[in-house]
Every structure is written in structure tokens, then in C-alpha cells.
């Protein structure tokens, strides 16, 4: 029997998202989420999608750690005849947020690879530890199975040094691995290719600005299928205004807060990562709630929205200049896919760049990739639902079964 299934794991600090896919047709067999790991209120939601599935199931109650979480996931999959011991399971693909300069493509996980991912924890303290935990747990459950790391930073590794380097002392930067790495790479890779397909062209023929707008948000400039610039940097803090992150800020704000407010480095880290962005500006990080408040005349919500859009427009303009020629702008992720007012505001006033929306097309809610620009626009505007799990599964399967994906 040929093994064609890939289990995709996305391990967070207190959660595990998972999908099981059959790579013969990239169909989903099961999807699920374990959240609040380590709490008494832990919860697993599992949905079998294969023929004969019994529908969504939930478990609640304490799940002590990631090991217990993955064992519970394995039990749920086994209940549907999709267990981890199945000979049809070809590999497990893991989302790993930071791969540094070394990992620029999907990589079979060895002890050496795992040690390097752990060495990168100082530049990804919120993400890489959870990714490592998920990998170790999966290895313990299936030590015989190929496990593949797919790195968020990999797609951005094609950036030229002029875009990747910060203008600081080179020896200091190199000694401490300080440079711009970028994140959300699997999403930017998938969406840029899908946008080219929407235009009926090969990715090598298309220049795309991808706007991944979720609670975390990033932009990328993709020239002929290769990333040449992206908004996130050493960490996912740089760039666009996000749900709880500040994005771009004068570095001297940090020193000012230390000297004037007496804040510690950890307190400033907490401020900029968890108490800034939209939530810092208006108390909400849900764009739907912000829009509701705006409709009711809330000026604080309006200002937060305006700041969000102002930063977004700046990046669109900057990446237009970087690329020289733009064939499409693609909106993706939760806000990009669903918030028509965000797309409308971001594109408004950019007619001189060949951009214009069709209001009726932009207002349509759909889970399909689509063009929403006006017929006369020189540059296409697309809404492309991202599919990071499929991207991870395809990269994983291509590595363990060359030619199979």
C-alpha cells in the first residue's frame, strides 16, 4: 500500500492545530484544534471529513501538556480509522516559525536539525519552543515516521541583502543573527502562486504584493515567484499595525520608556507585543467589533482603523516602488479575506497606481479565490483564502515522496 497521507501539526504555546490530508487529491480527512493545554479548561474540537465521518466531536477537561494533547489527537483519529499507526501515513509535517539563515526549504528533522531550531529560540521565544515540543512529542509517538519541518521564514530567504540587512554594525549583527527574516512565509508562498493562477499566468511571469491580514499581519513583495521584501523582521513585531502588536516604531521609544517610565525590557516586550496595535489604540483587536463601533460613531475606533489603513497604504506604495511593476495585490487571512471595508479603504485613492475596486465584487462574501478589482483597473486586486496547512502538506509530501505531490 502506498502511503499518501500527511498529518500537519501547528504547535503553539498552549494549542495544537492539526489536519490530516490525502495527497492523492489533497483532500482533508480530518481537522482539529486542541486549545488551553495545561489548564483545567482544555478543549479538543475534532472534525472527521472522510466518508462516513460522524461529525464534529468535542472533549473538555484537563490536558496536561503537548504529549497528552497529541495522544488525544491520535485517539480521535483512530476512532475514525485514521490512526497514526496507519500504513497510509507518509509523514508528519510541522510548522516551525523560525529557521534562521540555515533552513531555507522543507527539511527532514534530525537531532541536529532540532538542536539548531532550539538554538534559534532567542530570536523566536514565543514560537520555536512550542514547535520543538510538538516535534519531540510526535517523534515519540511515531519514531519510525519521517518528520518534516516547514519554516515560516523560508519563503523570505530569497530577499536580497539590501532588503534583509539592518543598517547597524555588521559584526554585531552577524554575531547575534540580527537581520530581517520575515514570517507567514507558507501563506505568502501559497497566495502568490494562487494569485498568478487566477491571472492565468505562471508565477515566474507575475509580480504580486501579498497582504496577509490577520491578528498578526505582514506584507510581501513577490517578483516572479520570489520574495524580494517583507514587512516583518528579526521577529514578527515589525511592520504593519496588528491586533496586539505595534508594528513599525522608533527604536528609541524603547530607551525612552526605560529611562522615563522605568519599564524593564520584559515589560516593554509585553507592551509592544501584547498591549499595542489595535487593542492598544482602542481596546479591541477584532476588526468586526471595531467596524461596529465606527458605525456607532466611536472616534477611538475610527482613529485605530485609520492608523491601521495608513500603515497598510504605506507598505503598498513602498512595495510598488520596490517591484517597479505590479500585476496584482492579494488580500488574505482573516481580515484580508473577510473585511471588505479594509480592502476598500486600503485601495481608495490609489487610482494613479492603476488600482480600483469593483464595489459589488468587493462586497461579496465567499471562500473562493476571486478578483474584486474594477474592469478598467491596470492592476488586479484579488482576495485569496490562504491555505497554510495545504502548503505545509505539499512541501512535506514532495520531500518524502519526490514527484508525488
Description of the molecule:
The protein is an alpha/beta fold. Helices cover 38% and strands 19% of the residues. It contains 15 helices and 14 strands. It has helices spanning 66-79, 111-119, 128-141, 161-164, 170-175, 185-198, 252-260, 265-274, 277-282, 287-295, 299-323, 333-338, 340-347, 359-363, 388-400, and strands at 5-11, 16-22, 27-35, 43-48, 57-60, 89-96, 107-108, 147-151, 207-213, 217-223, 226-230, 328-332, 370-371, 380-383. An 8-stranded mixed β-sheet has the order 5-4-3-2-1-6-8-7, sandwiched between helices. Strands 11-10-9-12-14-13 form a 6-stranded mixed β-sheet, sandwiched between helices. A hairpin with a 3-residue loop joins strand 9 (207-213) and strand 10. Helix 11 packs across helix 13. The chain is globular, with a radius of gyration of 21 Å. It starts with a strand and ends in a 5-residue tail after the last helix. The mean pLDDT is 93.
Task: List the SSEs and their pairings.
Elements: E1 5-11, E2 16-22, E3 27-35, E4 43-48, E5 57-60, H1 66-79, E6 89-96, E7 107-108, H2 111-119, H3 128-141, E8 147-151, H4 161-164, H5 170-175, H6 185-198, E9 207-213, E10 217-223, E11 226-230, H7 252-260, H8 265-274, H9 277-282, H10 287-295, H11 299-323, E12 328-332, H12 333-338, H13 340-347, H14 359-363, E13 370-371, E14 380-383, H15 388-400
Parallel strand pairs: 1-6, 6-8, 9-12, 12-14
Antiparallel strand pairs: 1-2, 2-3, 3-4, 4-5, 7-8, 9-10, 10-11, 13-14
Helix pairs in contact: 1-3, 6-15, 10-11, 11-13
Amino acid at each position: 500500500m502506498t502511503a499518501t497521507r500527511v498529518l500537519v501539526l501547528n504547535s503553539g504555546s498552549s494549542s495544537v492545530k492539526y489536519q490530516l490530508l490525502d495527497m492523492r487529491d489533497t483532500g482533508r480527512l480530518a481537522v482539529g484544534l486542541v486549545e488551553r493545554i495545561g489548564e483545567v479548561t482544555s478543549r479538543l474540537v475534532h472534525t472527521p471529513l472522510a466518508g462516513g465521518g460522524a461529525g464534529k466531536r468535542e472533549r473538555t477537561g484537563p490536558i496536561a501538556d503537548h504529549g497528552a494533547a497529541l495522544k488525544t489527537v491520535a485517539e480521535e483519529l483512530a476512532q475514525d480509522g485514521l490512526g497514526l499507526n496507519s500504513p497510509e501515513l507518509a509523514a508528519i509535517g510541522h510548522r516551525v516559525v523560525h529557521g534562521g539563515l540555515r533552513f531555507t526549504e522543507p527539511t527532514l528533522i534530525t537531532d541536529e536539525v532540532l538542536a539548531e531550531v532550539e538554538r534559534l529560540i532567542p530570536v523566536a521565544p514565543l514560537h520555536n519552543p512550542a514547535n520543538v515540543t510538538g516535534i519531540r512529542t510526535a517523534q515519540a509517538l511515531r519514531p519510525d515516521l519521517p518528520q518534516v519541518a516547514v519554516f515560516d521564514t523560508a519563503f523570505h530567504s530569497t530577499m536580497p541583502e539590501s532588503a534583509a540587512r539592518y543598517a547597524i554594525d555588521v559584526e554585531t549583527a552577524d554575531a547575534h543573527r540580527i537581520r530581517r527574516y520575515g514570517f507567514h512565509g507558507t501563506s505568502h508562498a501559497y497566495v502568490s502562486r494562487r494569485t498568478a493562477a487566477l491571472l492565468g499566468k505562471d508565477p515566474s511571469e507575475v509580480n504580486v504584493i501579498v497582504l496577509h491580514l490577520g491578528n498578526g499581519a505582514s506584507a510581501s513583495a513577490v517578483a516572479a515567484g520570489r520574495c524580494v521584501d517583507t514587512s516583518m523582521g528579526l521577529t514578527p513585531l515589525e511592520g504593519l499595525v496588528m491586533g496586539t502588536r505595534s508594528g513599525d516604531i522608533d527604536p528609541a521609544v524603547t530607551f525612552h520608556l526605560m529611562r522615563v517610565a522605568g519599564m524593564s525590557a520584559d515589560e516593554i516586550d509585553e507592551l509592544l507585543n501584547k498591549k499595542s496595535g489595535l487593542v492598544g489604540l482602542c481596546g479591541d483587536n477584532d476588526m468586526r467589533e471595531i467596524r461596529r463601533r465606527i458605525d456607532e460613531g466611536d472616534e477611538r475606533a475610527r482613529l485605530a482603523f485609520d492608523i491601521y489603513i495608513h500603515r497598510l497604504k504605506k507598505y503598498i506604495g513602498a512595495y510598488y516602488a520596490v517591484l517597479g511593476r505590479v500585476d496584482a495585490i492579494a488580500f488574505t487571512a482573516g481580515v484580508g479575506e473577510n473585511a471588505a471595508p479594509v480592502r476598500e479603504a486600503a485601495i481608495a485613492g490609489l487610482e494613479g497606481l492603476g488600482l480600483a475596486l469593483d464595489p459589488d465584487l468587493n462586497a461579496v462574501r465567499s471562500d473562493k479565490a476571486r478578483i474584486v478589482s474594477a474592469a478598467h483597473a491596470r492592476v488586479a486586486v484579488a482576495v485569496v483564502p490562504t491555505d497554510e496547512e495545504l502548503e505545509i502538506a505539499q512541501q512535506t509530501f514532495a520531500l518524502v515522496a519526490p514527484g508525488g505531490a
